[in-house]
Write a structure and sequence with these properties.
heterodimer; A: 123 residues; mainly alpha; 6 helices; B: 666 residues; alpha+beta; Substrate Binding Domain Of DNAk, Chain A, domain 1; Nucleotidyltransferase, domain 5; Actin, Chain A, domain 4; six-stranded mixed β-sheet; elongated
């Protein structure tokens, strides 16, 4: 069944997960020196102002509501990243590298593909 | 799925029966329908939103007035209303205490605890198990769902959610009588582990009786609002909610009015009803031991109904006293039931049920990345938590005395009313951040589950991931959306699917397809796919379209808890198989590209190998073949042979070019 699924109804192969560089601290109204407690506090303070449930009764026009919702999602994403110790550490390192060496590009090891059979697309 | 069957049933029974499908319109509603235009007058004041706890055994309704939530009493002056609906031979529909009172004489047409059957298939073990305890008849509906059959009319049957609708209608009526105005908007609570279709079924039930359901809220989360509104304390809170039919545990982080759910877990078929059933069995056993006649009492519906009521009464009594007397005179002919029951006896016979709540408890704590000792406060909700043994057990688990300030029967409705007031803008310093109970993702190449939104993710949320095609020239993509915790889609539940068509054909891996999952604060899931090059787009809104039954969710969660080594092995194996298939594609591609320079015998030998390998792939996927070594060896062998052929072909092509060049000067 899976076989036919592949040919008749081709499903998809995962290739990349997005990773956008943006200023997560700024999204949360914080300095890069902020600790977990401050991050949490700031997120909750912003949530109280910008969460869709809070906006619901303000009778805002649809497009404004959508814009605010996206803004809130951005904030939430930054919060989730910074609350994850591993992701936060790597993000902090990244900032440090960038500020130390200007806009130096991270060394890319993306050289040639060894041979054309070697696919690692399926994760 | 559920909502559709609901509507159909209303239509098909409409012309044949003389029993009203819904309770007769109560007066305030009639007034509202008659003068619908008057609603507009109140447009500048915040719209009132009532909160309804639609419970397994009892329901309650509350409202926030002047920032203070309060429970609304029904016409009998009770703060909760039994979730019981009865149909009489005269064509009346009774709801609440009046239905409960006549249960003994009309047990076949008195429906209680129907929330346990919502969204379940007739064949489910839980349903089959429940049937033996129930005084009414459970039948299999044409779509396989468990429905309820009366003996009135032409044996009319109802879906469990229709019964829920009758109860909701009654609660709406209670609110309207109290508020002296129409109650149009409501927040309704459901067990945290209810799936999308059950939430939608609840919503539909409300809408059919004229309610605008502004939000479905999880019961333990609602209870935490009731607690937090009074306490104004920050910290980590565990809500242990053992009601009539379901068990939920949620861990929340409360911080200056923001209630953030950290994790949730539970068992959708564990509650007071199970405790009653154990006790009923015990009483029946006790009676049989001393029985003089030979009547099988379990076949006597009326006697069983009396035993059930006595059991419930004794269970409740033992929460306050150490000993109680179970007395049922003339249970059959001239025989009586009369014996004493001690609290310790009840504790002992229900210990297995109490223990069943411990596993979800541990799981919720670990999902929240916490230790038991991190929890600052434990609250107990649901009538069953009055049982002293349960309080002790939970107290021992957290090494902390549970907080008893919230009313176990009323907290959920109060919380629902608070959330309603937040949404209407009446309460401004409270915010609830709730989570999705199960992982969401899509099917990828080879039947693998690619999770996009892990369970316990706070909503609203939006996640995007880029995917690509699996074969050359693929011009459409099936996006199959699944819910569950297992690595292969076949073990999870398909909750929706759509197709992205007419994408420009390109070699595999080239198109960039962006898949987004968007869950808004209502819990409505929207999945969309976008081909970045052509701008083609397709999407689906999953909520309520097709859903899984509660039993299926339970099954999934149960399975995911023991995601086995075997799963991992299968997953790994299928990844190797996928890789092998990619090599096959590349080999075929290469033969095509270099066709002119490949010898016939080479083509033949490679072709033979390819067809064998293809067989291996299809056998692996159907489960007939499981041999990692073989697949790995095939990868190497096929790769090497193709490599060699291509190298030879390359040599020949260079030779050919040289030949051409050496001829050119002439």
């Amino acid at each position: 069944m899976l076989q036919s699924c592949l040919y008749k109804h081709p499903t998809v192969v995962r290739i990349t997960t997005r990773c956008i560089t943006e200023n997560h601290y700024k999204n949360l109204d914080l300095d890069p020196t902020a600790d977990l407690k401050q991050i949490k506090k700031s997120f909750k303070r912003l949530s109280m102002k910008l969460h869709p449930d809070i906006l619901l009764s303000q009778e805002l026009p649809q497009d404004m509501l959508r814009k605010k919702k996206n803004h809130y999602l951005q904030i939430k994403k930054s919060y989730e990243l910074l609350m994850d110790p591993e992701k936060k550490a790597s993000y902090d390192r990244n900032i440090a590298v960038r500020t130390a060496a200007g806009a130096r590009k991270a060394a890319s090891t993306n050289s040639q593909r060894g041979n054309f059979f070697h696919y690692t697309r399926v994760r | 799925m559920f909502s559709i069957t609901f509507r159909q049933s209303l239509r098909t029974t409409g012309s044949t029966c003389r029993i009203p499908r819904l309770p007769r319109l109560s007066l305030p509603i009639r007034r509202f329908y008659a003068s619908g235009s008057t609603i507009k007058a109140a447009v500048h004041k915040p719209v009132k939103v009532i909160g309804i706890d639609l419970g397994t055994t009892n329901s309650a309704v509350a409202v926030v007035e002047g920032e203070m939530p309060r429970i609304l009493e029904n016409s009998q002056g009770d703060r909760t209303t039994p979730s019981i609906v009865a149909f009489t031979t005269r064509g009346d529909v009774l709801v609440g205490a009046t239905a409960k009172r006549q249960a003994v004489v009309n047990s076949e047409n008195t429906f209680y605890a129907t929330k346990r059957l919502i969204g379940r298939k007739f064949e489910d073990d839980e349903v089959q198990n429940d049937i033996s305890h129930l005084s009414y008849k459970v039948v299999k509906h044409e779509n396989g769902d468990a429905w309820l059959q009366t003996t009135v009319g032409e044996n009319l049957s109802y879906s469990p959610s229709q019964i829920g609708g009758f109860v909701l209608k009654e609660m709406k009526h209670v609110a309207e009588t109290n508020l002296n105005s129409e109650a149009k908007n409501a927040v309704i609570t459901v067990p945290a582990y209810f799936n999308d279709s059950q939430r939608q079924a609840t919503k539909t039930a409300g809408e059919l009786v004229g309610l605008n359901v502004v939000r479905i809220v999880n019961e333990p989360t609602a209870a935490s609002l009731a607690y937090g509104m009074n306490q104004k304390k920050n910290g980590l809170l565990a809500v242990y909610d053992l009601g009539g039919g379901t068990f939920d545990i949620s861990v929340l982080d409360i911080d200056d009015g923001v209630f953030e759910v950290r994790s949730t877990n539970g068992d959708t078929h564990l509650g007071g009803e199970d405790f009653d059933n154990v006790l009923v069995k015990y009483i029946v056993g006790k009676f049989k031991d001393s029985q003089k006649g030979d009547e099988d009492i379990t076949k006597n519906r009326m006697a069983m109904q009396r035993i059930k009521e006595a059991a419930e009464k004794a269970k409740i009594a033992l929460s306050h006293v150490h000993k109680t007397r179970i007395q049922i005179p003339f249970i059959v002919k001239d025989e009586n039931i009369d014996f004493e029951l001690a609290e310790s006896e009840l504790d002992e016979m229900t210990m297995h049920l109490i223990k069943k709540t411990m596993e979800p408890l541990k799981k919720a704590i670990s999902d929240a990345d916490l230790k038991r000792s991190d929890i600052d406060e434990v609250i107990m909700v649901g009538g069953m938590t009055r049982m002293p043994r349960i309080r002790r057990m939970v107290g021992d688990f957290f090494n902390k005395k549970p907080n008893t300030e919230v009313n176990p029967d009323e907290a959920v409705a109060i919380g629902a009313a608070i959330q309603g007031a937040v949404l209407s803008g009446e309460v401004k310093d409270v915010l609830l951040l709730d989570v999705t109970p199960l992982t969401l993702g899509i099917e990828t190449y080879g039947g693998l589950f690619s999770p996009l939104i892990p369970r316990n993710t706070t909503v609203p949320c939006k996640i995007q991931t880029t995917y690509s095609t699996a074969v050359d020239g693929q011009n459409s993509i099936d996006v199959n959306v699944y819910q569950g915790e297992r690595p292969l889609v076949r073990d999870n539940k398909l909750i929706g699917k759509f197709k992205l068509t007419d994408i420009p054909p390109k070699p595999k891996g080239v198109p960039k397809i962006q898949v987004s999952f968007d869950i808004d604060a209502d819990g409505i899931i929207k999945v969309s796919a976008l081909d970045k090059d052509s701008g083609k787009r397709a999407s689906i809104t999953v909520f309520g379209k097709t859903g899984m039954s509660q039993a299926e969710v339970e099954q999934l969660v149960k399975q995911s808890k023991k995601t086995t080594k075997e799963d991992q092995m299968t997953l790994n194996y299928l990844k190797h198989v996928n890789n092998l298939e990619l090599i096959v594609f590349d080999s075929e591609q290469a033969i095509n590209d270099w066709s002119r320079f490949i010898l016939e015998e080479e083509k033949e030998s490679l072709g033979r190998k390819l067809s064998i390998v293809k067989r291996m792939i299809s056998d692996s996927r159907s489960g007939d073949l499981f041999d990692v070594k073989l697949i790995k060896a095939a990868q190497v062998e096929l790769k090497d042979e193709t490599m060699e052929i291509i190298q030879n072909a390359g040599q020949r092509s260079r030779d050919a070019r040289k030949k051409v060049q050496s001829h050119e000067p002439n």
